[in-house]
Write a structure and sequence with these properties.
Strand order of the largest sheet: 1-2-8-5-3
Distance between the termini: 65 Å
Main location: membrane
CATH topology: Cytochrome p450
Bound molecules: protoporphyrin IX containing FE
Pfam families: p450
Family: Belongs to the cytochrome P450 family.
Order of helices and strands: HHHEEHEHHHHEHHHHHHHHEEEEHHEEEE
Cofactor: heme
GO molecular function: heme binding; iron ion binding; monooxygenase activity; oxidoreductase activity, acting on paired donors, with incorporation or reduction of molecular oxygen
Number of helices: 18
Helix content: 40-55%
CATH architecture: Orthogonal Bundle
Length: about 475
């Protein structure tokens, strides 16, 4: 019997090894070259991916970076992740180099997983697709548009808090924050308000989010396989929505400027061509992924930190109540109100410093170049890590201390606070995110104080930081 299990195990190991071999075989970029930065490329094929992911699962993603900064170099070291040779850039000057040399030495790059989840990126490339996306966004994220969104966001927040928070003594925060930011995105990107329609997407989005940055093993049951299936399901649903919108536009039931979906359907490229339906579905999918979970993580961690730090809560409450007092019954927040929320935004920034929703992002070297005396070969991937500066004593004294005053005056030195990246690839949704986070804080603190139900709840990074039990809390309404 033992022999049977041993053979089964050997068969399984061989199968996995062969799958990995074929998966990574196409990456023929050499892992060796003269004068590379110090570091190790780890085990054949999987490199150091498991160590990289497992420090995140244990809640300390910075450990992977800081251990190697101590062992090899405080600025750059080489490794291998997700089947690619990678150089990790650490610290302010390295961030500056990557952010300021887009298209000269580097271009944005996403792991192959992303291309497989977004099939339109396979037809061109994720670079081309993200260029198209950046062209489409300004119309939707320009200041005049953003100003209009404030009251819509506040209206949705009122309804959300009315339905899911009020009249409850206990709630679980993370799924509610996801629900809030996802509903906002569905409403503002596609004019969908129906909660049951929106709820249909929630689980597939969770699977998609956690499978995008995982080992690219497309076998039944793996996170990557689940992500691909989820993306197919969501794309199908999006295609239905797109087709209905086309009809509504033709019949005058929808307007060309009502949301990003109309805008995408009616915008053509330099050659006079309109985007096809699948292309639009993928763009909307990308925006929904990039645009809702990042902000919901920030809202969740705001709840966590405000529960732990009553003196910070008191100041946020004071600031938000000053604004609430100026409102007559039912009057919604406006742009001026948002601009008064300075302390609250400093708190949100400090939350993003300590728990950056994205841990970093990738670039690809488009030429051979020398950096800090080391050779970076063309085709190698580069990674900037938010934690390499956010958690560094050099830039943020007592880095583990929660201190929103770091953002007063001139704030942190350039290229050290980078939750949204920097340079031409900086997150185009930064201002949109600021609005939805501040509207959330306003609606939360004016209604409640709260207490964490699991005081030492573990944090895991998968790939976004998340409280392991989704942050259950007990609510204490102010008007009780
Ligand atoms: C707290 C919320 C958010 C955080 C922390 C965040 C962070 C980031 C980061 C770090 C990047 C990568 C930058 C790089 O490659 O160097 C990025 C890219 C991107 N973000 Fe955000 N983001 C947030 C919210 C949003 C929202 C609300 C939207 C949409 C409305 C959005 C849309 C995008 C898009 C489209 C890209 C890709 C840009 C490109 O390829 O050039 N993000 N974001």
């Amino acid at each position: 019997m033992e022999q049977f299990y041993l053979s089964l195990l050997l068969l399984f190991v061989s199968f996995i090894s062969l799958s990995l071999f074929f998966l990574f075989y196409k990456h023929r970029i050499p892992f060796t070259a003269p004068n590379l930065p110090p570091g190790t490329i780890g085990y054949p094929m999987i490199g150091e991916t498991l160590e990289f992911l497992s420090t995140g699962w244990k809640g300390h993603p910075e450990k992977f970076i800081f251990d190697r900064m101590v062992k090899y170099s405080s600025k750059i070291f080489k490794t291998s992740l997700l089947g690619e040779p990678i150089v990790v850039f650490c610290g302010a000057s390295c961030n500056k180099f990557l952010f300021c040399n887009e298209n000269k030495y580097v271009i944005s790059w996403w792991p192959d997983n992303v291309n497989k989840v977004f099939p339109t990126s396979l037809q061109t490339s994720s670079k081309e697709e993200s260029k198209k996306m950046r062209k489409l966004l300004p119309q939707f994220l320009k200041p005049e548009a953003l100003q209009r969104y404030v009251s819509v966001m506040d209206d949705i927040a009122h309804k959300h808090f009315g339905s899911f928070w009020e009249n409850n003594t206990q709630v679980t925060v993370y799924p509610l924050c996801k629900r809030y930011t996802f509903l906002l995105a569905c409403r503002l990107f596609m004019s969908i308000e129906d909660e049951t329609h929106v709820a249909k997407f929630a689980d597939p989005f969770y699977l998609l989010g956690s499978g995008i940055i995982s080992l690219p093993i497309d076998l039944p049951g793996t996170p990557f396989n689940k992500a691909i299936k989820a993306s197919k399901f969501i794309r199908k649903e999006l295609l239905k929505i797109i087709r209905v919108r086309k009809v509504d536009l033709a019949e005058g039931k929808a307007t060309p400027t009502q949301d990003i979906l109309s805008h995408m359907l009616l915008t053509c490229n330099e050659d006079g061509q309109y985007m096809n339906e699948l292309d639009i579905a993928d763009k909307i999918l990308g925006l929904l992924i990039g645009g809702h979970d990042t902000a919901s993580v920030t809202c969740t961690f705001i709840v966590k930190y405000l529960a732990e730090l009553p003196h910070i809560y008191d100041r946020v409450y004071q600031e938000q109540m000053e604004i609430a007092k100026t409102k007559s019954g039912g009057e919604l927040l406006n742009w001026d109100d948002i601009n008064k929320m300075k302390y609250s935004w400093n708190v949100a920034c400090e939350v993003m410093r300590l728990a950056p929703p994205l841990q970093g992002a990738f670039r690809e070297a488009i030429n051979d170049f020398i950096f800090n005396g080391f050779s970076i070969p063309k085709g190698w991937k580069l990674y900037w890590s938010a934690n390499s500066t956010h958690k560094s004593e050099e830039y943020f004294p007592e880095p583990e201390k929660f201190d929103p005053t770091r953002f007063e005056g001139k704030g942190p030195i350039p290229y050290t606070f980078v939750p949204f990246g920097g340079g031409p690839r900086m997150c185009p949704g930064k201002e949109y995110a600021r609005l939805e986070i501040l509207v959330f804080m306003h609606n939360l603190v004016k209604r409640f104080k709260w207490k964490r139900l699991i005081p030492d709840e573990k944090i895991i990074i998968n790939p976004l930081p998340t409280p392991a039990q989704n942050l259950p809390i007990q609510l204490f309404p102010h008007n009780a």
